[in-house]
Amino acid sequence: MEQQFDTSKLGMWLFIVTEILLFGGLFVGFGLMQHQYPREFIEAHEHLKQVIGGQLFPLYGSVNTIVLLISSWTMVMGVNAAQTSQQKKTVRYLVLTILLACVFLVIKYVEYSHKFHDGLLPGIFYAHQNEDLIKGTHGYATFFAFYFMMTGLHGIHVIVGIVLLSWLAVRANRGDFNKEYYTPVDLVGLYWHVVDMIWIYLFPLYYLIS
Amino acid sequence: MSTHTDSHSHGGPKIYTANLFALLFLTVLTIAAASFNFGSANVVIALAIASVKATLVALFFMHLVWDKPVNAIIAIAGFLFLGIFLMFDFLDVTSRVNFLPRNMPNMENATPAPDSMNPLKTAPPRPLEPAPAAPEEHK
Known about the structure:
The structure holds two protein chains of two kinds. By secondary structure, chain A is an all-alpha fold.
Protein backbone atom coordinates (compact mmCIF):
# COMPACT_ATOMS: atom_id res chain seq x y z
CA MET A 1 0.00 0.00 0.00
CA GLU A 2 2.78 2.38 0.89
CA GLN A 3 4.47 1.76 -2.45
CA GLN A 4 1.23 2.11 -4.34
CA PHE A 5 0.61 5.43 -2.63
CA ASP A 6 4.10 6.70 -3.44
CA THR A 7 3.81 5.60 -7.07
CA SER A 8 0.44 7.28 -7.55
CA LYS A 9 1.80 10.43 -6.05
CA LEU A 10 4.85 10.37 -8.29
CA GLY A 11 2.56 10.01 -11.31
CA MET A 12 0.49 12.93 -10.11
CA TRP A 13 3.58 15.10 -9.79
CA LEU A 14 4.61 14.21 -13.33
CA PHE A 15 1.15 15.27 -14.49
CA ILE A 16 1.55 18.50 -12.53
CA VAL A 17 4.78 19.22 -14.40
CA THR A 18 2.93 18.88 -17.71
CA GLU A 19 0.35 21.33 -16.38
CA ILE A 20 3.07 23.78 -15.38
CA LEU A 21 4.58 23.55 -18.86
CA LEU A 22 1.18 23.88 -20.56
CA PHE A 23 0.38 27.10 -18.75
CA GLY A 24 4.04 28.14 -18.88
CA GLY A 25 3.88 28.19 -22.67
CA LEU A 26 0.85 30.44 -22.52
CA PHE A 27 2.56 32.74 -20.01
CA VAL A 28 5.59 33.02 -22.30
CA GLY A 29 3.27 33.87 -25.21
CA PHE A 30 1.58 36.49 -23.07
CA GLY A 31 4.96 37.98 -22.17
CA LEU A 32 6.06 38.15 -25.80
CA MET A 33 2.84 39.84 -26.86
CA GLN A 34 3.05 42.29 -24.00
CA HIS A 35 6.50 43.19 -25.28
CA GLN A 36 5.01 43.59 -28.75
CA TYR A 37 2.04 45.76 -27.69
CA PRO A 38 3.04 47.32 -24.34
CA ARG A 39 0.69 50.29 -24.55
CA GLU A 40 -2.35 48.34 -25.75
CA PHE A 41 -1.88 45.67 -23.10
CA ILE A 42 -1.81 48.22 -20.31
CA GLU A 43 -4.90 49.99 -21.64
CA ALA A 44 -6.74 46.73 -22.22
CA HIS A 45 -6.01 45.45 -18.71
CA GLU A 46 -7.81 48.48 -17.27
CA HIS A 47 -10.98 46.86 -18.60
CA LEU A 48 -10.49 44.00 -16.13
CA LYS A 49 -10.91 46.47 -13.29
CA GLN A 50 -14.04 47.97 -11.83
CA VAL A 51 -14.63 51.49 -10.53
CA ILE A 52 -14.71 51.37 -6.73
CA GLY A 53 -15.06 54.71 -4.97
CA GLY A 54 -13.89 56.60 -8.04
CA GLN A 55 -10.83 54.43 -8.49
CA LEU A 56 -10.09 51.45 -10.67
CA PHE A 57 -9.76 48.32 -8.60
CA PRO A 58 -9.53 44.68 -9.70
CA LEU A 59 -12.55 43.65 -7.60
CA TYR A 60 -13.50 40.41 -9.34
CA GLY A 61 -9.92 39.27 -9.67
CA SER A 62 -9.08 39.99 -6.02
CA VAL A 63 -12.21 38.32 -4.67
CA ASN A 64 -11.57 35.29 -6.85
CA THR A 65 -7.99 35.08 -5.59
CA ILE A 66 -9.20 35.04 -2.00
CA VAL A 67 -11.95 32.51 -2.81
CA LEU A 68 -9.45 30.15 -4.42
CA LEU A 69 -6.93 30.50 -1.58
CA ILE A 70 -9.60 29.65 0.97
CA SER A 71 -10.72 26.71 -1.17
CA SER A 72 -7.13 25.46 -1.16
CA TRP A 73 -7.23 25.61 2.62
CA THR A 74 -10.53 23.69 2.85
CA MET A 75 -9.04 21.14 0.44
CA VAL A 76 -5.93 20.56 2.53
CA MET A 77 -8.10 20.36 5.65
CA GLY A 78 -10.18 17.72 3.86
CA VAL A 79 -7.04 15.74 3.02
CA ASN A 80 -5.96 16.04 6.63
CA ALA A 81 -9.37 14.80 7.84
CA ALA A 82 -9.16 11.82 5.47
CA GLN A 83 -5.65 11.06 6.71
CA THR A 84 -6.92 10.95 10.28
CA SER A 85 -10.05 8.88 9.43
CA GLN A 86 -12.50 11.68 10.26
CA GLN A 87 -15.17 10.78 7.75
CA LYS A 88 -17.74 13.51 8.46
CA LYS A 89 -15.10 16.22 8.49
CA THR A 90 -13.71 14.98 5.18
CA VAL A 91 -17.12 15.21 3.52
CA ARG A 92 -17.76 18.62 5.02
CA TYR A 93 -14.46 20.09 3.81
CA LEU A 94 -14.86 18.55 0.34
CA VAL A 95 -18.35 20.06 -0.01
CA LEU A 96 -17.01 23.43 1.17
CA THR A 97 -14.29 23.25 -1.47
CA ILE A 98 -16.89 22.49 -4.16
CA LEU A 99 -19.00 25.46 -3.00
CA LEU A 100 -16.01 27.82 -3.13
CA ALA A 101 -15.14 26.53 -6.60
CA CYS A 102 -18.72 27.32 -7.66
CA VAL A 103 -18.44 30.83 -6.18
CA PHE A 104 -15.27 31.28 -8.25
CA LEU A 105 -17.09 30.23 -11.42
CA VAL A 106 -20.08 32.48 -10.72
CA ILE A 107 -17.80 35.49 -10.34
CA LYS A 108 -16.00 34.43 -13.51
CA TYR A 109 -19.36 34.22 -15.27
CA VAL A 110 -20.30 37.76 -14.21
CA GLU A 111 -16.90 38.98 -15.36
CA TYR A 112 -17.16 37.24 -18.73
CA SER A 113 -20.70 38.58 -19.32
CA HIS A 114 -19.44 42.14 -18.90
CA LYS A 115 -16.67 41.49 -21.40
CA PHE A 116 -19.09 39.91 -23.89
CA HIS A 117 -21.47 42.83 -23.47
CA ASP A 118 -18.69 45.37 -24.12
CA GLY A 119 -17.44 43.48 -27.18
CA LEU A 120 -14.11 42.83 -25.48
CA LEU A 121 -13.67 39.54 -27.28
CA PRO A 122 -10.68 37.61 -28.53
CA GLY A 123 -9.17 37.88 -32.00
CA ILE A 124 -11.51 38.54 -34.90
CA PHE A 125 -14.52 38.77 -32.60
CA TYR A 126 -13.17 41.91 -30.95
CA ALA A 127 -15.87 44.57 -31.28
CA HIS A 128 -15.26 47.19 -28.61
CA GLN A 129 -16.42 50.57 -29.86
CA ASN A 130 -15.18 53.05 -27.26
CA GLU A 131 -12.88 55.84 -28.31
CA ASP A 132 -10.49 55.20 -25.46
CA LEU A 133 -8.81 52.46 -27.44
CA ILE A 134 -6.66 53.45 -30.40
CA LYS A 135 -7.64 51.97 -33.72
CA GLY A 136 -5.65 50.05 -36.27
CA THR A 137 -3.81 47.77 -33.87
CA HIS A 138 -4.22 44.14 -33.01
CA GLY A 139 -3.02 44.70 -29.47
CA TYR A 140 -6.40 44.71 -27.73
CA ALA A 141 -7.73 41.69 -29.61
CA THR A 142 -4.48 39.88 -28.78
CA PHE A 143 -4.76 40.78 -25.12
CA PHE A 144 -8.30 39.45 -24.92
CA ALA A 145 -7.37 36.36 -26.90
CA PHE A 146 -4.80 35.55 -24.22
CA TYR A 147 -7.13 36.60 -21.44
CA PHE A 148 -9.94 34.29 -22.55
CA MET A 149 -7.59 31.47 -23.49
CA MET A 150 -5.77 31.43 -20.17
CA THR A 151 -8.60 32.20 -17.76
CA GLY A 152 -10.85 29.92 -19.82
CA LEU A 153 -8.41 27.03 -19.66
CA HIS A 154 -8.05 27.70 -15.95
CA GLY A 155 -11.85 27.75 -15.65
CA ILE A 156 -12.05 24.36 -17.38
CA HIS A 157 -9.59 23.08 -14.80
CA VAL A 158 -11.87 24.40 -12.06
CA ILE A 159 -14.85 22.58 -13.61
CA VAL A 160 -12.83 19.36 -13.82
CA GLY A 161 -11.88 19.93 -10.19
CA ILE A 162 -15.55 20.26 -9.20
CA VAL A 163 -16.35 16.95 -10.93
CA LEU A 164 -13.44 15.20 -9.19
CA LEU A 165 -14.32 16.73 -5.82
CA SER A 166 -17.97 15.65 -6.16
CA TRP A 167 -16.82 12.11 -6.89
CA LEU A 168 -14.58 12.26 -3.82
CA ALA A 169 -17.38 13.63 -1.64
CA VAL A 170 -19.67 10.75 -2.66
CA ARG A 171 -16.97 8.20 -1.95
CA ALA A 172 -15.99 9.84 1.34
CA ASN A 173 -19.64 9.85 2.38
CA ARG A 174 -19.75 6.12 1.59
CA GLY A 175 -16.79 5.66 3.94
CA ASP A 176 -14.19 4.67 1.36
CA PHE A 177 -11.37 6.68 2.88
CA ASN A 178 -9.48 6.22 6.12
CA LYS A 179 -5.93 6.63 7.36
CA GLU A 180 -4.90 3.44 5.54
CA TYR A 181 -6.30 4.49 2.16
CA TYR A 182 -6.86 8.07 1.10
CA THR A 183 -4.84 8.22 -2.15
CA PRO A 184 -7.60 9.78 -4.32
CA VAL A 185 -8.21 12.58 -1.81
CA ASP A 186 -4.51 13.32 -1.66
CA LEU A 187 -4.07 13.35 -5.45
CA VAL A 188 -7.12 15.48 -6.18
CA GLY A 189 -5.83 17.75 -3.44
CA LEU A 190 -2.56 18.16 -5.33
CA TYR A 191 -4.49 18.90 -8.53
CA TRP A 192 -6.62 21.49 -6.77
CA HIS A 193 -3.55 23.26 -5.37
CA VAL A 194 -2.08 23.43 -8.87
CA VAL A 195 -5.27 25.12 -10.06
CA ASP A 196 -4.82 27.59 -7.21
CA MET A 197 -1.15 28.07 -8.02
CA ILE A 198 -1.88 28.89 -11.67
CA TRP A 199 -4.36 31.52 -10.55
CA ILE A 200 -1.72 32.96 -8.21
CA TYR A 201 0.28 33.83 -11.35
CA LEU A 202 -2.69 34.75 -13.54
CA PHE A 203 -3.97 37.30 -11.05
CA PRO A 204 -1.02 39.72 -10.92
CA LEU A 205 -0.22 39.36 -14.63
CA TYR A 206 -3.73 40.11 -15.84
CA TYR A 207 -5.28 42.25 -13.14
CA LEU A 208 -2.40 44.15 -11.55
CA ILE A 209 0.20 44.93 -14.23
CA SER A 210 0.32 48.64 -14.95
CA MET B 1 8.04 0.86 6.80
CA SER B 2 8.28 1.88 10.40
CA THR B 3 7.80 5.57 9.71
CA HIS B 4 4.63 4.97 7.75
CA THR B 5 2.15 6.58 10.10
CA ASP B 6 4.55 9.38 10.97
CA SER B 7 5.42 10.35 7.42
CA HIS B 8 1.82 11.20 6.59
CA SER B 9 0.68 12.88 9.75
CA HIS B 10 2.92 15.89 9.45
CA GLY B 11 1.45 19.26 8.78
CA GLY B 12 -1.83 19.61 10.55
CA PRO B 13 -4.59 22.20 10.73
CA LYS B 14 -2.52 24.79 12.61
CA ILE B 15 0.18 24.97 9.95
CA TYR B 16 -2.39 24.99 7.15
CA THR B 17 -4.35 27.82 8.73
CA ALA B 18 -1.17 29.84 9.33
CA ASN B 19 -0.25 29.23 5.70
CA LEU B 20 -3.65 30.46 4.55
CA PHE B 21 -3.24 33.70 6.49
CA ALA B 22 0.25 34.16 5.06
CA LEU B 23 -1.18 33.72 1.55
CA LEU B 24 -4.03 36.17 2.19
CA PHE B 25 -1.56 38.69 3.60
CA LEU B 26 0.63 38.37 0.50
CA THR B 27 -2.44 38.85 -1.71
CA VAL B 28 -3.26 42.12 0.06
CA LEU B 29 0.41 43.09 -0.20
CA THR B 30 0.56 42.49 -3.94
CA ILE B 31 -2.64 44.47 -4.55
CA ALA B 32 -1.25 47.31 -2.43
CA ALA B 33 2.11 47.20 -4.21
CA ALA B 34 0.38 47.44 -7.59
CA SER B 35 -1.20 50.77 -6.65
CA PHE B 36 2.23 52.40 -6.41
CA ASN B 37 4.25 53.20 -9.48
CA PHE B 38 7.69 51.62 -9.26
CA GLY B 39 8.16 51.73 -13.01
CA SER B 40 9.30 48.48 -14.52
CA ALA B 41 9.94 47.08 -11.01
CA ASN B 42 6.17 46.61 -10.61
CA VAL B 43 6.22 43.46 -12.73
CA VAL B 44 9.21 42.10 -10.83
CA ILE B 45 7.56 42.78 -7.45
CA ALA B 46 4.26 41.21 -8.56
CA LEU B 47 5.97 38.09 -9.89
CA ALA B 48 8.24 37.80 -6.85
CA ILE B 49 5.24 37.89 -4.49
CA ALA B 50 3.40 35.39 -6.72
CA SER B 51 6.41 33.09 -6.59
CA VAL B 52 6.56 33.29 -2.80
CA LYS B 53 2.85 32.41 -2.69
CA ALA B 54 3.28 29.51 -5.12
CA THR B 55 6.19 28.23 -3.02
CA LEU B 56 4.11 28.39 0.15
CA VAL B 57 1.31 26.45 -1.56
CA ALA B 58 3.76 23.83 -2.85
CA LEU B 59 5.63 23.42 0.42
CA PHE B 60 2.75 23.23 2.88
CA PHE B 61 -0.56 22.64 1.07
CA MET B 62 1.07 20.16 -1.31
CA HIS B 63 3.15 18.64 1.49
CA LEU B 64 6.47 18.97 -0.32
CA VAL B 65 8.19 19.86 2.95
CA TRP B 66 7.35 16.48 4.45
CA ASP B 67 7.31 14.43 1.26
CA LYS B 68 9.90 12.15 -0.27
CA PRO B 69 12.40 14.42 -2.08
CA VAL B 70 11.69 12.82 -5.47
CA ASN B 71 8.41 14.74 -5.79
CA ALA B 72 10.11 18.04 -5.06
CA ILE B 73 12.83 17.20 -7.59
CA ILE B 74 10.20 16.62 -10.28
CA ALA B 75 8.44 19.87 -9.43
CA ILE B 76 11.68 21.85 -9.45
CA ALA B 77 12.66 20.24 -12.77
CA GLY B 78 9.36 21.44 -14.25
CA PHE B 79 9.98 25.01 -13.14
CA LEU B 80 13.60 24.81 -14.23
CA PHE B 81 12.65 23.96 -17.80
CA LEU B 82 10.02 26.66 -17.76
CA GLY B 83 12.79 29.02 -16.65
CA ILE B 84 14.99 27.98 -19.57
CA PHE B 85 12.06 28.51 -21.93
CA LEU B 86 11.41 31.99 -20.51
CA MET B 87 15.07 32.95 -20.48
CA PHE B 88 15.70 32.18 -24.15
CA ASP B 89 12.56 34.01 -25.21
CA PHE B 90 13.63 36.96 -23.12
CA LEU B 91 17.08 36.94 -24.74
CA ASP B 92 15.49 36.81 -28.17
CA VAL B 93 13.06 39.64 -27.58
CA THR B 94 15.55 41.98 -25.90
CA SER B 95 18.31 41.46 -28.46
CA ARG B 96 16.27 42.10 -31.58
CA VAL B 97 17.02 45.23 -33.53
CA ASN B 98 14.57 46.30 -36.18
CA PHE B 99 16.15 48.65 -38.69
CA LEU B 100 13.63 51.30 -39.50
CA PRO B 101 14.22 54.58 -41.33
CA ARG B 102 14.36 56.47 -38.04
CA ASN B 103 17.07 54.37 -36.41
CA MET B 104 19.15 53.51 -39.47
CA PRO B 105 22.80 54.50 -39.23
CA ASN B 106 23.77 57.52 -41.28
CA MET B 107 24.61 56.21 -44.75
CA GLU B 108 25.40 59.48 -46.51
CA ASN B 109 29.19 59.24 -46.33
CA ALA B 110 29.36 55.49 -46.60
CA THR B 111 31.32 53.97 -49.44
CA PRO B 112 28.91 52.54 -52.00
CA ALA B 113 29.14 48.82 -52.59
CA PRO B 114 30.90 47.78 -55.81
CA ASP B 115 28.66 46.92 -58.72
CA SER B 116 29.67 43.29 -58.47
CA MET B 117 27.89 43.12 -55.12
CA ASN B 118 24.78 44.89 -56.32
CA PRO B 119 22.18 42.33 -57.34
CA LEU B 120 20.31 44.94 -59.35
CA LYS B 121 23.30 45.42 -61.63
CA THR B 122 24.57 41.88 -61.85
CA ALA B 123 21.38 39.86 -62.25
CA PRO B 124 18.50 40.63 -64.58
CA PRO B 125 15.42 41.81 -62.71
CA ARG B 126 13.17 38.98 -61.72
CA PRO B 127 9.69 38.87 -63.18
CA LEU B 128 7.01 40.30 -60.95
CA GLU B 129 5.13 37.80 -58.91
CA PRO B 130 2.24 38.42 -56.58
CA ALA B 131 3.69 39.60 -53.32
CA PRO B 132 2.91 37.41 -50.34
CA ALA B 133 0.96 39.08 -47.59
CA ALA B 134 3.60 41.13 -45.83
CA PRO B 135 3.93 40.47 -42.11
CA GLU B 136 2.86 43.49 -40.14
CA GLU B 137 5.36 45.93 -38.78
CA HIS B 138 4.74 46.49 -35.11
CA LYS B 139 7.34 49.02 -34.15
